[in-house]
Design goal:
Layout: H1 13-26, H2 34-47, E1 51-55, H3 58-71, E2 80-84, H4 93-97, E3 101-105, H5 116-123, E4 130-134, H6 143-153, E5 156-160, E6 168-169, E7 172-173, E8 180-184, E9 197-201, H7 204-214, H8 224-233, H9 238-241, H10 256-266, H11 269-288, E10 301-303, E11 308-312, H12 316-328, E12 333-335, H13 345-350, H14 358-366, E13 367-371, H15 378-388
Parallel strand pairs: 2-3, 2-4, 4-5, 5-8
Antiparallel strand pairs: 1-9, 6-7, 6-10, 8-9, 11-13, 12-13
């Protein structure tokens, strides 16, 4: 492919690979330890959150977050949980796996996201215990208004921010509007630890429970005071406490390789975000000059850490024509995330709730995206402009 979806495994690829080889050769400890803790602390500072908890994938971060909230009895089986309908499977599957009821929320073709209107429409049909919002592709709807609805109605707001690391709305980083947010560091994301994910929160109790959930319900990753309090509550000796399991959990722990890579990838991240935004703004000008496409609404986004280059065509015939043009030019493309998730086979099998989602259906039929890598060169960006220019008739 001339313009691939994924250019490389890492930011600063060559130096990172060399450093990783040296780290593996020189360390005597590869299971979760000091490097992971250092990455958690650095990521919390970057994101502006009190706690960051590192996991072995973004999907694991989502699963652990819902299990932790269930353990704390802030959510329970049978609760209705709203979610952005244009999303990825790991935003919905944990809701099903926790025996909760997913309720899809429509996503605007102008923002790619669920906003306050879409949430209000769903609430007219019934109450929600939580909303698990996907901040899609670096963009957002009017998330501050949506968050206010959640606050006023006692609804837990969770953000899947896996595609929007570094984006800001009115000076506030996406991922900082709700109780907690999740991130992915898979190879195609803003930073890569090969596999890896994070949960960020300011809630001390939730952070402690997430540490338990991550490690099979053990207390070994809690701080000393938390550990002593838990053992006293359950009348467990220090000897027995080393192998006591206090609540439901999984083995979702990362390795020191994850922590090492995460620390290195944070360094070039700000420059990478700026380049992604510049790339997007250049391509967006070409989109705006072609009436075959709908321009996206970026109002309120003070920083756009564009995960990809999304293209919303005016109809599905145009989508097919432009998709063929991009692919013929050597540009790798894909559907917009997973489209309307209600159409996915797992959803049809396991979920009862179906809602009319005209905007998500439109995006499913009429949108696609290509990559947006900070290392795209002039020839690649010019090729993208050429694919957009003119009409596809």
């Amino acid at each position: 492919m001339t313009v691939p979806l994924v250019m490389s495994t890492f930011l600063d690829e060559e130096s990172t690979r060399k450093a990783l080889a040296g780290f593996i050769a020189g360390t005597d400890h590869l299971s979760m330890g000091a490097r992971c803790r250092a990455f958690e602390e650095a990521f919390a500072r970057y994101q502006g959150r009190r706690h960051s908890l590192l996991f072995n994938s973004g999907g694991s971060a989502n699963l652990a977050l819902l299990q932790a909230l269930k353990n704390l009895e802030r959510l329970k089986g049978g609760d209705d949980v709203g979610f952005s309908a244009v999303t990825w499977s790991t935003n919905v599957m944990p809701v099903i796996q926790m025996a909760m009821n997913p309720v899809p929320l429509d996503c605007s073709r102008r923002t790619l996201n669920t906003g306050s209107k879409e949430l209000a429409d769903a609430l007219d049909e019934g109450a929600l215990a939580a909303v698990f919002l996907t901040n899609a592709l670096g963009f957002s709807g009017d998330i501050e208004a949506l968050a206010e609805i959640c606050r006023s109605r006692g609804i837990l707001l969770l953000e899947d921010n896996c595609e929007s690391l570094g984006s800001e709305r009115k000076g506030v980083k996406l991922g900082n509007f709700g109780l907690a947010s999740t991130f992915s560091f898979y190879v195609s994301h803003h930073i890569s630890t090969i596999e890896g994910g994070m949960v960020c929160t300011d809630d001390d109790e939730l952070a402690s429970m997430l540490r338990l959930v991550r490690a099979n319900g053990w207390d070994r990753n809690l701080d000393e005071a938390e550990r002593a309090k838990l053992r006293k509550r359950h009348d467990v000796t220090d000897l027995d406490g080393r192998y006591t399991f206090y609540d439901l959990g999984f083995n979702l722990r990362p390795t020191e390789i994850t922590g090492f890579l995460g620390l290195r990838q944070l360094e070039p991240l700000p420059a990478s975000v700026r380049r992604r935004q510049a790339n997007y703004e250049r391509i967006a000008k070409a989109v705006a000059a072609n009436d075959d496409f709908l321009p996206l609404d970026r109002e309120g986004l003070s920083v756009l850490s564009a995960f990809a280059m999304p293209f919303v065509c005016r109809d599905e015939t145009l989508r097919a024509r432009y998709a063929a043009r991009f692919e013929a030019a050597g540009v790798e493309i894909r559907p917009l995330i997973a489209g309307n998730i209600q159409k996915q086979p797992f959803y049809v099998r396991y979920v009862r709730c179906r809602r009319a989602l005209p905007e998500a259906d439109f995006l499913h039929r009429c949108a696609f995206y290509c990559g947006n890598h900070p290392d795209y060169d002039e020839s690649q960006l010019s090729l993208l402009e050429g694919c957009i220019g003119g009409d596809a008739s």
